[in-house]
Amino acid sequence: MIDATELADRFLSHLAANGTTTSEAVQRIRSARRQTGQPLDMVIRELGVLPELTIASEMARFLDLDVIQDCGVSDGIEWLEKLGWDYAAEKAIFPMGSKDSNLHLAIADPFDHETIEAVSYFFDLPIQIGLSPRSVIEEQITRFRRASASPVDEAILEESASDVDLERLLDVARDAPVVKFVSKIVQRAIDDKATDIHLEPQADIMRVRLRRDGLLLETETAPRSLHTGVISRLKILARLNIAERRLPQDGRLRLPVRGQEVDFRLSVVPSVHGETAALRILDRESIRLDLQSLGYDAASARRIDTLTRRPNGLILVTGPTGSGKTTTLYSILAGLNRPSVKIFTVEDPVEYRIAGITQLQIDPAIGLSFATALRSVLRQDPDIVLVGEIRDRETAEIAIQAALTGRLVLSTLHTNSAIGAFNRLRDMGVEPFLLAATIRGVIGQRLLRQCCGACRDLPTKVGCTVCEGTEFKGRTATYEILEVSERFREAMRSSNTEEDLEAVAIAHGLLPLREHGRTLVAKGVTTMDEVLRVIDAD
Predict the structure, then answer these.
(1) How confident is the model at residue 331 (pLDDT cuts 50, 70, 90)?
(2) Which residues, listed in sequence order, are joined to residue 98 by a DSSP beta bridge?
(3) N vs C: which end of the chain shows fewer Cβ within 10 Å?
């Protein structure tokens, strides 16, 4: 099946081929559409390339659809009130009623397949579309809205009740359109290799955004009246209290997606427009448990392997949230995991379950902190311990004590560089001589978007259908590996500044993050703008 982007592109080529407009105008349209993200009919109209009625006629001819000059039928009010006036106006759609078990829908942008699917899911009916100029649809929606004596405001009705009708919430959560919508957005997120799904209620719509390659992208909007059902369904699946809408809730759920079981971490937080939900995708099938697949070259992977084969000491991975620290640690653990070694992890939360490794999730609500859990784990006779994050002095001191007494300890710190780990631990109150005695190495890491392999060699950088016009597809690691030498230990003991420590490290082979990023630019893996965006953002 041809996707909407490719179909719209073919339509533009059709306009040039049949002489309706010029190739130069088509190029301007394509460029403006990529830059603005506006519907195709709006772009063509605003550029003044074609009159609005001609646009609708050409689209209808190309797609073999009818042109609807007057979409304002009396049945429209009932359907519009259910769908939501503002949503219909934003999407330039007008439901004209049901006939032969199909919902007839006037639309200005027939290439907006997501909106067509959303309306189909909402009403649980197949859609038969026809073309109407955007101004005609907007005019009819305005006319019907004014004529409606008491338009139904779904958002107010949903949120105004002081007592939640539990049975109603359960019924809404089981509605076929809700079930289909949740299934659809989850499948799309997995197909797009997204890491997070955001469901955000606005005054009149529900916005859906996916985090792909580190950036949030709006994928679609849905009728506001779907919101309560979608949130309730997610709560049920995560075994949360669906009647509680005043307090944040966190949970975990598992859903079947294309024959695979995928885990999700759910966070629900109340907002002025209703509950907003964020789903972190914990796809066990997609996690890459070897360093080279993350972007580490063979030589760097060998250096890390050498560091982690030592029987004791502390190894840290640093970087901001979302820089891939946990995945790198899991990759290291996968290489160390064997029957002769006892491995324990203490995490918040346990994101991926690994066979052969004992994993413990902290729970501060019952007093199970990193420090408390780590103390207990050390009485379990482990050889290797992973601490999800060193957040305070107590956890740092226990981790260092474990490293001093014959265990290999792996952990993360939120610092902007490998060198910054030492000052962070000093600021927590750890003595420099203890750091010098225990730390074997520090890996600083970021994730950079990779240039799209399908279009990176094209003379003009405009993107393609593979990368959806972004010019990037996938991410790779840029990193710095600090191996603690004897000279560096001496510098640590003397409490030198971060600048002094960095100078010593560079003199002994450290390639800083930005310099490694430059090597990736030289190889065509990414761009300098991307390196500066990610590293200078610190």
Answers:
(1) very high
(2) 103
(3) N
